[in-house]
């Protein structure tokens, strides 16, 4: 081999390794292109905001990574991750056993709990005694129902509904004592003029029946990234950054109590 | 942001907070993807029909395999498979050549290739049917004039066959316009994906789904007008009723 050829080869090698080193610090975060405020929100000009976005920014600062958002329809997320188009599935993918067979997850970063709401005057401790004789409206075929039936099914009378709106309608007309459901949907009702007479009586704790919450989806075996994400997540949980972001958007803890 | 007090017209306006431009870009992307893949499909369809009717057994079975396989598999599945394995294959080829990371496959080209490749299978059957429906005397007359095979195709078979293929081609164009929305799974914000985006952001799902349905209808109606013009031109010299 001629020295000139070797020099070119060396230059190519330097170039190639330089390129990969830069690429390693570049993280591509997959966002569902259909936003779901207040978790994530997108302006017409393409700027993202919301809880998920702020958490991502905080994590990226701690990991000292160069982060980029890739918008993909939800159905294409896992294929995109596996084909190396993105490095992380963000915007709230629930950790489920089926998904854990094909991808890995970071620790959970949020788990919106279910809430109980009832009239302000009502005394409602969240316990078997508290629910004794109460009628409780819950959405059909949800984890909420499985959870409630398991712990309080014997004490309360459960009524099942198709939508949260139907539950609220029956609560307002006095046919129900308590409404149980997604905290954001119920909060929206409480904030409206119709919700004045009602208040939140409590939220569900973290429980296997309610699922494990949402984590960052990563490629199987990408343990280096998993470690970086978990470390950064722990740091922002401990130094209060997470709580500061949560307070901006919610009056409950989106991490879910353990 | 709370959109409950915002009117529909200000949401689809072209102001800084309106989504007008997003819809225009989405519709334009839909039209571009559809047109490009349609043209590729026509090309592959003509080649496929030629292979099926040309008399060469190897080519015949190749074309037969192509149309059978592609038409048997759901388009959404094909797009995911072709797009991701296609780009992976491209990256692997670069790796082997020692050029890893120097080039990336243009996403638009990849998507157009996927849709066009799928469309070509359907086009093959449309063209094959149209060519076989021509009276054999047409081709024989062309031969008797000592026209070369290329001339026979260009001057006789193609213009006569297109007239018969047109209804089928119009059908395929309309399904292409709608199938192009499947590419949102590989990250393209075409019209349907834009609709989902705005619906999610504003929580006005029904409103915006109906809105994009109306845009799709408008696209279909205006392309129908184009097909009617082409049909009139191809029908010259024929009795309309026949």
SS-derived structural category of chain B: mainly alpha
Elements of chain A, N to C (H/E):
HEEEHEHEHEEHEHEHEHEEHH
Give me the Rg of chain A, rounded.
23 Å
**Largest interface: pair, residues per side:** A-B, 28 and 27 residues
If you average the pLDDT of chain A, what whole number results?
A: 88
> What helical percentage do the residues of chain B reach?
over 70%
Record field, number of beta strands of chain A: 12
User: Mean pLDDT of chain B, as a whole number?
Assistant: 90
Give the strand order, joined by hyphens, for the main sheet of chain A: 4-1-5-12-6
What structural category characterises the helix and strand content of chain A? Answer: alpha/beta
Number of helices of chain A: 10
Helix content of chain A: 25-40%
Radius of gyration of chain B: 22 Å
Uncertain segments of chain B? none
- End-to-end distance of chain A, in Å? 65 Å
Topology, please?
The complex is a heterodimer of chains A (258) and B (242).
Chain A: H1 3-24, E1 26-32, E2 41-42, E3 48-49, H2 51-63, E4 66-72, H3 77-82, E5 88-94, H4 97-100, E6 104-110, E7 114-119, H5 128-131, E8 135-139, H6 143-152, E9 157-161, H7 164-172, E10 178-182, H8 183-191, E11 198-203, E12 214-218, H9 223-238, H10 241-249
Parallel strand pairs in A: 1-4, 1-5, 8-9, 8-10
Antiparallel strand pairs in A: 2-3, 5-12, 6-12, 7-10, 7-11
Chain B: H1 8-11, H2 20-53, H3 57-72, H4 75-96, H5 107-132, H6 136-144, H7 149-179, H8 191-202, H9 205-234
Helix pairs in contact in B: 2-3, 2-5, 2-7, 2-8, 3-5, 4-5, 5-7, 6-7, 7-9, 8-9
Characterize the structure shown.
The complex is a heterodimer of chains A (about 260) and B (about 240). By secondary structure, chain A is α/β, with parallel strands linked by helices. Chain A contains ten helices and twelve strands. In chain A, the strands form three sheets. A five-stranded mixed beta sheet of chain A has the order 4-1-5-12-6. A five-stranded mixed beta sheet of chain A has the order 9-8-10-7-11, sandwiched between helices. The longest helix of chain A is centred in the N-terminal third of the chain and has 22 residues. Chain A is elongated, with a radius of gyration of 23 Å. About 5% of the residues of chain A have low confidence. Chain B is mostly helical. Chain B has nine helices and no strands. Chain B is flat.
């Amino acid at each position: 081999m001629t020295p000139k050829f070797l020099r070119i080869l060396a230059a190519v090698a330097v170039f190639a390794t330089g390129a990969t080193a830069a690429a390693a610090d570049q993280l591509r975060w997959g966002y569902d292109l259909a936003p779901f405020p207040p978790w994530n929100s997108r302006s017409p000009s393409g700027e993202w905001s919301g809880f998920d976005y702020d958490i991502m920014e905080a994590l990226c600062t701690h990991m000292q990574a160069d982060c980029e958002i890739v918008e993909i329809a939800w159905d294409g997320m896992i294929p995109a991750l596996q084909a190396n188009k993105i490095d992380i599935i963000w915007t709230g993918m629930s950790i489920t056993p089926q998904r854990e067979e094909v991808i890995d997850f970071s620790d959970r970063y949020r788990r919106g709990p279910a809430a109980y709401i009832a009239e302000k005057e009502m005394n409602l401790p969240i316990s078997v005694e508290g629910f004794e004789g109460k009628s409780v409206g819950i959405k059909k075929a949800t984890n909420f129902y499985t959870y409630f039936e398991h712990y309080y099914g014997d004490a309360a009378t459960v009524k099942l509904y198709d939508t949260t709106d139907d539950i609220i309608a029956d609560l307002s007309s006095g046919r129900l004592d308590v409404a149980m459901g997604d905290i954001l949907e119920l909060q929206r009702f409480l904030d409206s003029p119709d919700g004045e007479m009602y208040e939140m009586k409590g939220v569900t704790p973290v429980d296997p029946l309610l699922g494990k919450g949402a984590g960052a989806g990563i490629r199987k075996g990408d343990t280096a990234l998993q470690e970086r994400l978990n470390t950064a997540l722990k740091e922002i949980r401990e130094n209060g950054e997470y709580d500061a972001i949560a307070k901006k958007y919610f009056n409950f803890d989106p991490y879910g109590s353990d | 942001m709370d959109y409950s007090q915002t009117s529909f017209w200000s949401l689809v306006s072209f102001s800084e907070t309106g989504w007008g431009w997003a819809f225009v870009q989405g519709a334009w992307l839909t039209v571009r993807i559809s047109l490009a893949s349609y043209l590729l499909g026509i090309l592959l369809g003509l080649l496929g029909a030629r292979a099926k009717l040309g008399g060469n057994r190897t080519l015949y079975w190749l074309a037969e395999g192509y149309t059978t396989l592609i038409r048997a598999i759901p388009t959404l599945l094909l797009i995911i498979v072709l797009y991701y394995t296609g780009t992976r294959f491209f990256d692997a080829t670069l790796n082997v050549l020692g050029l890893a990371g120097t080039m990336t496959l243009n996403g638009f080209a990849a998507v157009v290739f996927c849709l066009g490749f799928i469309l070509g299978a359907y086009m093959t059957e449309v063209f094959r049917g149209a060519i076989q429906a021509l009276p054999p005397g047409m081709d024989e007359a062309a031969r008797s004039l000592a026209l070369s095979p290329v001339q026979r195709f260009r001057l006789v078979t193609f213009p006569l066959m297109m007239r018969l293929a047109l209804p089928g081609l119009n059908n395929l164009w309309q399904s292409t316009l709608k199938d192009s929305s499947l590419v949102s799974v590989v990250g393209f914000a075409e019209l349907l994906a834009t609709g989902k985006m705005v619906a999610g952001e504003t929580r006005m799902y029904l409103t915006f789904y109906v809105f994009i349905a109306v845009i799709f209808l408008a696209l279909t109606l205006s392309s129908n007008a184009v097909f009617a013009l082409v049909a009139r031109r191809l029908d010259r010299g024929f009795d309309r009723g026949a």
